[in-house]
Amino acid sequence: MALKLVQEAPLQDADLVREAIAGNPLSFQLLVERYQGRLFALARHYTSSPVEVEDIVQDTFLKAYSRLDTFQHQSAFYTWLYRIATNTVLDFLKRRGRCPVQAVEDPELAGSPETDRRIVRPDARLERQEVAEITHAILEGMPEIFRTVLVMRELEEMAYQEIADVLDISIGTVESRLFRARARFKERLVTQYPEFAQGINE
Amino acid sequence: MNCKHARPLVPLYVDGELTSVQSAELRPHLLSCPACRSLAQAEQSLHAWFVPTDEIPVPAGFAAHVARRAVAGDTGSKRPLAPVEGSGHEHSEPILQFVLHALAVAAIALVVASIAMRRLDQPAAEELKAHESQALDASLFALDQINREELRAASIFNPQGAQEGSSGR
Fold first, then answer.
1. Element (H, E) at A200
2. CATH of domain A107-201
3. What is the ipTM of this complex?
4. Chain A partners of B34 at a C-beta cutoff of 8 Å?
């Protein structure tokens, strides 16, 4: 029954990948059209420059095409593509002069219980775009391993399992990284934007 | 369920990562425990910061363009980074190069001039006055004294430190 359904849907990702590997450029173009919007949105979380966003997405698809034969069909095509996109973004950030901070997994760096309980809602006077800009600025200053999980969870709304698959880490590591990432984000919000972050200690 | 068990589950609850059984166990505790409830509210409050940013539209013909490049063998890596908009890098580079060249020329001229002036001022070996060589000797002697004192201090303090270390164990 499941097989029949697959046969009736010729535009499945896996079929397009097979056709692209077999030398049909139109199949790859269809894959690009299918996911370009999501990758543009993903790259946008890391840079606000349209030129850089386009560069990152183009690089991602070119890399994907050059290694299409390594796609194992065990995970979803988008998960595989997303992993390449994340690595492309990290390469891009590295070339931009950013370097991942070492020893960031130190538990001491996590927030205190006081920070954990702190409610930090955006000030009601802020416009949506202003909130987005503050968040973007804070994310930009964070170590990459925290920034990636926050983008994936909070902006891409990915499940822990999907994040674990893309970053090739365990679900436990996703949990602890997210916990620390949020604590850091909160800490920075309250210290850098005290006038906009309504910090309430319960 | 008590707070010790509930606390680590709170972020997972807020993220929708708990099973329905786990959620059903945690929920009554959150309703009855103000501390754990405020923790959940604090976790939830953070979500409000992550709003979608203005979209960057995909340029027309992007997919066809990328597919063409991919088929042509472009693997995408190691291409130069596009200049950042408004950074002014593309304009500042020639100016920067000119300033650097000018500085280099000025530095060379300065070195040549100072060598020439020193030659004029420098006394020949036979002209070196006695008091100058005495002053040099005195400063070398002073340096030597400092070195000796440091060595003596090290030899005095090290055995003590070793003794303290051994007595501490």
1. strand A197-201
2. 1.10.10.10
3. 0.78
4. 202
The reply to whether residue B69 touches residue A58, judged by beta carbons under 8 angstroms, is yes
The 10 Å CB-count burial string (b at 16+, else e) for B127-152 is: eeeeeeeeeeeeeeeeeeeeeeeeee
Task: Find the closest chain A residue to B39 by CA distance.
Answer: A117
Contacts of A41 in chain B (CB under 8 A): 52, 55
Task: State in Å, rounded, how far the first CA of chain A is from the last one.
Answer: 55
> Would the pLDDT of B104 be above 90?
no
Mutation to test the A interface, candidates B50, B77, B90, most A Cβ within 10 Å: B50
Chain B residues closer than 8 Å to A122 by CB: 48-49
Q: Examine the pLDDT at B16 and tell me if it is beyond 50.
A: yes
Strand partners, A122: A197
**Domains A2-95 and A107-201 are alike in CATH topology:** no
Residues B40-58 have pLDDT tens digits of 888 888 888 998 888 899 9
**Percent of chain A at pLDDT above 90?**
40
Tell me if the domain spanning A2-95 has CATH number 1.10.1740.10.
Answer: yes
